[in-house]
Every structure is written in structure tokens, then in C-alpha cells.
Specification:
By secondary structure, the protein is an alpha/beta fold. The chain is built from five helices and five strands; from the N terminus they run E-H-E-H-H-E-H-H-E-E.
Length: about 120
């Protein structure tokens, strides 16, 4: 199975969460926005050198964004009235566009279709 890794999943893999063990050797499809969120979290929790080393352990396959998808993500977030981040909404719709599962541990996405929800 092919997955879109949201930031939550990427952080859990880097942190060695056993629940994400089976995903760690797969090709990591994600978006540039998720990579930016990941870097921010790594800088917050560590330092720039450690963040760089941890980031280098993953080899993301970046999926392209386009204006239409970004607008759909903004509308998805607005109309669903949930506490979704915009990068997560974009990632969720990118996963659907490319017909791959959205991998996350974010409870807001647990009940949606096309989601592989993995608890922390």
C-alpha cells in the first residue's frame, strides 16, 4: 500500500513510535508544506543540526500542489468546521487526488474516508 505521510506520522516515525514501525521503510509521499511543518517541529524540539540529521533519515517523495487543490483544501477546512490545519487539509486532498491513503494519528481525520489512522 502507498501512503501520504502527514506531519504527525513523520514525527512519530522519527521518534521511533512502535505503532508506525511498519511504515518506516516505505517511500514517503508528502507535500512541501508538511516538510516545512516537520522542520519547524524538529527545530522546536531539538536544534538545527539535530533537525538536519533527523530529516536526512527520511527521503520524501514530494507531491505537487496546484492552485485548484489549495482552494479546495481551504473550502474543505472552512466547511468542515474542524480543527484541521491547512497543510493537513492539503495533504488529505493530495492523497485523494493521487489515490493513496492518508497516514495520520490526528484524531480529527480518524472518521474520514481514505485515512489510515494510527494511534500514538
Amino acid at each position: 500500500m502507498v501512503y501520504f505521510f502527514d506531519t504527525y506520522a513523520l514525527i512519530e516515525i522519527i521518534n521511533g513510535n512502535k505503532n508506525y514501525e511498519k511504515y518506516k521503510d516505505q517511500i514517503i509521499y508528502t507535500s512541501l508544506l508538511n516538510i516545512a511543518e516537520l522542520w519547524q517541529a524538529l527545530l522546536r524540539d531539538f536544534n538545527e543540526l539535530t533537525a538536519g540529521k533527523l530529516y536526512s533519515r527520511i527521503k520524501p517523495g514530494l507531491l505537487n500542489l496546484d492552485e485548484e487543490l489549495v482552494i479546495k483544501a481551504v473550502l474543505f477546512r472552512f466547511y468542515n468546521k474542524k480543527n484541521y490545519s491547512l497543510p493537513d487539509c492539503i495533504g488529505y486532498l493530495l492523497a485523494k487526488k493521487y489515490n493513496i491513503k492518508f497516514l495520520t494519528g490526528d484524531k480529527e481525520f480518524e472518521v474520514l474516508d481514505n485515512v489510515e489512522f494510527v494511534k500514538k
